[in-house]
Amino acid sequence: MNIGNLLKVALNALKRNKMRSLLTMLGIIIGVASVITMLAIGQGSKKSIQDQIASMGSNMLFVMPSSMRTGGVQQGSASSQSLTVNDVSAIKTECDAVIAVSPEVRSSGQAVYGNSNWPTTIYGGNVDYLEIKSWKVVSGRNLSDNEAKGSAKVCLIGRTVADELFGEGIDPTGETIRFKNIPFKIIGVLEEKGQNSFGQDQDDVLIAPYTTVQKRILAQTHIQSIQMSARSAEESALAMEQVEEVLRRTHKLRENEDNDFQVRSQEELSTTMTSVTDILTILLGAIAGISLLVGGIGIMNIMYVSVTERTREIGLRMSLGGKSMDILLQFLIESIMLSVFGGIVGIMLGFAASQIVEALTSWPISVMWSSAILAFVVCTVIGIFFGWYPARRAAELDPIDALRYE
Description:
The protein is of the alpha+beta class. Helices cover 56% and strands 18% of the residues. It contains 13 helices and twelve strands. It has a six-stranded mixed beta barrel with strand order 4-5-10-7-9-8. Strands 2-3 form a two-stranded antiparallel sheet. Strand 8 and strand 9 (182-190) form a beta hairpin. Helix 2 (18-55) runs antiparallel to helix 9 (266-309). It starts with a helix and ends with a helix.
């Protein structure tokens, strides 16, 4: 019997038991839809985190003070005063893999305008700070070198702070606010960024010259961190090596001494977060994959029932010259059809479910065609794997015993 005839026989057999075939396919449908939806959620989360990390800075590197030990007691890194503006100058001059560098100091407090006030954080940087942090000015202008050198009382304001102090959508450029009783003239408004991957509102900021924050707010000479941009993502590792070499020299550290600073990159953070989301995606996919396994077992069960019900039919076919291979292929094709048809419906349902989840929860979703192709291949394999044994059992029946079967 040729394949075309076998397909017709298998299709007719499924049509005779439409409800049973539908219920059998249901396990595969649910399994495939679950796998696609779970993978879409996992991939969407991964892409969202990567985009948010990228929005925090372009090829960004940063230097933080290391923890210090005083009298055998481990102090926090905040207690270290190892970083200075001279370090920034040395990095800018000697590290050719670094294209932008800025000191960073910060302080929390109340921003006040008239009768409105808002708790926020002020960050101090230089003219390169916005470029490093991938911030754009939508109204007004950036800081200038002269303002950084002269400790000017000017600032750029994030959209959240602007909305809270002045009202939603109002451009406050040119207005004066107070932060810790120090007046700051607003010279620009920052483009909206939204929340980062840690749930922090990136628009809830003020940015001022680092010298202003150092002298007028913190009353200190050291800086809290150094922010940098590598020339490219590929040169991030080289930039980190150059920065470490320069800082060890400027800090006069001997070969046997540990660094009193830490050099980190945005790439490290991205890699760590991506590995977490990859594990989460695999876990979600594995949990959903259990449904496929259950669906496969359902197919095997129904094929056993089908072989038992059609024992006399099998005996008749064999007595009329049907070969064992034809009988095996007939039942195997039925099993594959159940699995593949269920897989196709499951793929469509999975795409629809992913869109519904995104619409109802605003959760980031990224449906990949590769997951649909993988699901289709898995369905075919399940049909063959779970249909093989019942099909082989049918093919091995003795024609005489099969004809006598009641």
